[in-house]
Amino acid sequence: MSEEQILVLDPTGSDPDAEHQSLRERGPATLVDILGVRAWSVSDPTLLKQLLTSKDVSKDGRAHWPAFAETVATWPLALWVAVENMFTAYGKDHSRLRRMVAPALSARRTAALEADIEALVGGLLDALPAGETVDLREHLAYPLPIAVIGKLMGVPADQRTAFRTGVDNVFATHLSAEEQAANTTTLYGLLDALIETKRTEPGEDMTSLLIATRDEEDGSALSHAELRDTLLLMISAGYETTVNVIDQAITTLLTDPQQLAHIREGRCTWQDVVEETLRHQPAVKHLPLRYARTDIPLPDGRTIKAGEAILASYAAANRHPDWHKDADRFDATRPSKEHLAFGHGVHFCLGAPLARLEVATALRLFFERFPDAQLATERTALKRVPSLISNGHASVPVRLRPMSSH
To answer: 398 forms bridges with which residues in the sheet?
Structure first.
């Protein structure tokens, strides 16, 4: 493919729908430029699922990406490929790390949070000024998941804002390499301090649990780098993504009265709304990076060569017309809402049940409290967060009209 044909992804993510359409029109996979790095963007869901489950595709850039060393020195997204945790692990190393982390996000631990999440949402709604216009991304979508993951990890309440800022910047793809390096230094400082505190004063939290965890097969503990980067993964995946799903679901429901009517008249559930939001507007648009371990032939006759980078373009794949009928339309009643919002295969998101619980609870309680809320601007006027990864709005201004009993 010639240089002229490579699609340069917009680092500000200003018009993702058009960009994803362009990706699909170029075939199952196409070469893109992602902040100066060339990769194969895969937008065909069948091909993407095959690659996500193939042993010929790795997430370990150190081992399987010849360009790793020279790239991480100057690439703004270096953290996404250089962390040492299960996000960038391959094979037995990935299995070991996932095995050690999984108990911290068990079904029992998630279910035990249900009452806490209800109480957190209730408190946030109590604080909203009825009759006024409020940014719901700032006052509902943000504070809920940062409080939940902060509590899970044992992050003191007075440190959560600093963690939030750091995580937001990890997803901000308009920042320079120097700005991202400084942000990484700050984040690692926060994580090192948390680890040190929990080593000396362990508690009933995920950080303390991971410090004490030993692998059931070889008895090994997480190295300091693995522990720190695992905590970074937990707070990033457990916070930023959930913010976006709450944001997108509320925005959609406030601009499509028919979908709210479906819920209120029993044609679908809040869980249906969550799944359709995950399909229609997944929290993550593109997820860097994977690498071909061998030459991989594509359906159109081209080849992803060994050592080349692969970009999972989840948002484009979720709306592929070969997967879902009328795929660009949000419909909470559609029979199949299959999606790749949480990934696929061995890297499927461990926190998916927690995210689903948080979003469904936030939506149910918000629309019970404010059944006549209205978006305070046209949906087309909402600005996107400056990111080709994160899929949300800079703000979601909403006019609140509560039930008369409130």
So the answer is: 134, 375
